[in-house]
Amino acid sequence: MKAAVLREVGKPLQIEDVQINKPGPHEVLIRTKAAGLCHSDLHFMLGSYPTVLPTVLGHESAGVVEQVGSEVRTVKVGDHVITCLSAYCGHCDQCLTGHLSLCVSPETKRDKDEEPRLSAANGPMAQYLNLSSFAEQMLIHEHACVAIRKDMPLDRAALIGCSVMTGVGAAIHTSSVRPGETVAVIGLGGVGLAAVNGASIAGAGRIIAIDNVGSKHNLAMQFGATDFIDASQTDAVKEVLEMTKGGVHHSFEAIGLSKTAEQAFNMLRRGGTANIIGMIPVGQTITLMGAAFLGEKKLQGSMMGSNRFPVDMPRLVDMYMSGKLKLDEMISQRIKLEQVNEGFDDMKKGGLARSVIMFD
């Protein structure tokens, strides 16, 4: 099969022929139909986060089940599915207490003495984030995907696999936004827009969208923002504090920078919660004024929107089909696998929401 391979940090992805194995007892072979380009992939391409090389990147995807292993019970051949990088075992303490996104059990991967799921003619090929979806097929654990209704367009379904689940989940699950509360979202890529949409769905009374690209104003409003701040023109923290007369109940950092994480905390009201969704590069630190914690302000991370994706993702599909969840507006362009590097170049410029690879 054709796949986009990362062989060296800082270098473009290479389109190569990669070998894919047959499903094991709890594995599923999926024909990839669509895969979104996520900023997380770019972090690994640039070396901000380490990963085993060479590897096939991609982790935001949807497709159709082609084969299932002998013990698979959750999906069947022909099912349309959304994949999720937070594969879960189902019986560790995290899973049994409802924190599926925090499961790190090795059971969802193949043992070192087993044949790898992926391989290349010239040596081994690592699987990326349990998925490797920049490829014509995926071989994954059954608990890394969920079946959805077949009338859902798969290019839009793919977005739910990462950015939408991460952003909406951060608002609804991680921070538990309540009707009437105030929200600020820093960074209006796919994840940030989804956080805006999630806060709107949750009933937030005021949603302040913040980005350095002023042209994203209209897009933010389409996703449910009530206000927009062009951070390239003003002090975003000062503006939020003045607009809300003391700060917001919830803030969401969706870029992955120390500076914006600090801003997310500093724009809180007393008792507020700052949620760091973006992937701050390894080694970077955050500096905060210790006295601020006396006001019961909280700083917390959010892993994939604290999801229970087998339940959450089909519900998000229903929300889209009923018009509540915005997905059409999030897709900036549809590209072919061979255009993946151009897609990441466009991402670096900061003007797009999401590029989606379409597979024939």
Structure characterization notes:
It contains 9 helices and 20 strands. By secondary structure, it is of the alpha/beta class. The protein has 2 domains: 2-161 and 306-358, Medium-chain alcohol dehydrogenases, catalytic domain (Quinone Oxidoreductase, Chain A, domain 1); 176-301, Rossmann fold (3-Layer(aba) Sandwich), CATH 3.40.50. Strands 4, 6, 7, 11, 12, 19 and 20 form a 7-stranded mixed beta sheet that branches. Helix 3 crosses helix 4 (190-202). The model has no long low-confidence stretch (mean pLDDT 96). This is Zn-dependent alcohol dehydrogenase.
Can you tell me the CATH architecture of the largest domain? Alpha-Beta Complex
**Portion of residues in helices?**
25-40%
* Average pLDDT, all residues: 96
How would you spell out the order of helices and strands?
Answer: EEEEHEEEHEEEEEHEHEHEHEHEEHEHE
Identify the overall geometry. globular
The tally of beta strands, per DSSP, is: 20
CATH superfamily name of the largest domain?
A: Medium-chain alcohol dehydrogenases, catalytic domain
- Our count of helices gives 9
Quote the distance from N terminus to C terminus.
Answer: 12 Å
InterPro entries: ADH-like_C, ADH-like_N, ADH_Zn_CS, ER, GroES-like_sf, NAD(P)-bd_dom_sf
Pfam families: ADH_N (PF08240), ADH_zinc_N (PF00107)
Family: Belongs to the zinc-containing alcohol dehydrogenase family.
Cofactor: Zn(2+)
Task: Give the secondary structure arrangement, pairings included.
Layout: E1 2-6, E2 14-17, E3 19-20, E4 27-36, H1 39-46, E5 55-56, E6 61-68, E7 80-83, H2 93-96, E8 118-120, E9 123-124, E10 126-127, E11 137-141, E12 145-148, H3 154-174, E13 182-186, H4 190-202, E14 206-211, H5 217-222, E15 227-230, H6 236-244, E16 248-253, H7 258-266, E17 268-276, E18 298-301, H8 309-321, E19 331-335, H9 340-349, E20 354-358
Parallel strand pairs: 5-10, 13-14, 13-16, 14-15, 16-17, 17-18, 19-20
Antiparallel strand pairs: 1-2, 1-5, 3-8, 4-6, 4-11, 4-20, 6-7, 7-12, 8-9
Helix pairs in contact: 3-4, 3-8
